């Protein structure tokens, strides 16, 4: 089931995407978010600030969400209450 994610890029531009879990189209809804995920596909990324590392793949929803959290400010909407997650720049 696709998860809707809303967030904003460093320049303040807002986006909303669906994380699909589909290897061919991991996110749908924002060309910039699609490009961001494609750019980092194949790289290792921590799922949380303290790990574990996972290689980003389009069919791995957790890794795709980790990319969005690391490189953008994310407000997640889902079964949990909406929350703002911001990761410090490295």
In short:
With 90 residues, the protein is α+β, with helices and mostly antiparallel strands.
Report on the structure:
The protein is of the alpha+beta class. The strands form two sheets. Strands 3-2-1-6-7 form a five-stranded antiparallel β-sheet, with helices on one face. Strands 4-5 form a two-stranded antiparallel sheet. The protein is built from two helices and seven strands; from the N terminus they run βββαββαββ. The termini are far apart. Helix 1 packs across helix 2.
Pairing-aware structural class of the strands and helices?
alpha+beta
How is the biggest beta sheet arranged?
5 strands, antiparallel
**Sequence of strands across the biggest β-sheet:** 3-2-1-6-7
- End-to-end distance: 32 Å
The best one-word shape is globular
How many helical elements? 2
Q: Residue ranges: pLDDT <50 for 5 or more in a row?
A: 79-90
What's the SSE pattern? EEEHEEHEE
Share of helical residues? 10-25%
- Rg estimate, integer Å: 12 Å
The total count of strands amounts to 7
How confident is the prediction overall: mean pLDDT?
Answer: 86
Relative strand content: 25-35%
Secondary structure layout:
Layout (H helix, E strand, L loop, with lengths): L2 E6 L5 E6 L7 E2 L2 H10 L3 E3 L6 E3 L5 H11 L1 E4 L6 E3 L5
Helix pairs in contact: 1-2
């Amino acid at each position: 089931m696709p998860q809707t994610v809303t967030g904003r890029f460093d320049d303040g531009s807002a986006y909303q995407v669906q994380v699909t879990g589909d290897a061919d189209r991991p996110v749908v809804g924002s060309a910039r978010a699609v490009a961001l995920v494609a750019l980092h596909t194949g790289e290792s990324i921590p799922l949380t600030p303290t790990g574990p590392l996972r290689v980003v793949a389009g069919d791995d929803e957790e890794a795709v969400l980790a990319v969005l959290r690391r490189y953008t400010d994310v407000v997640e909407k889902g079964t949990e209450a909406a929350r703002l997650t911001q990761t410090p720049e490295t």
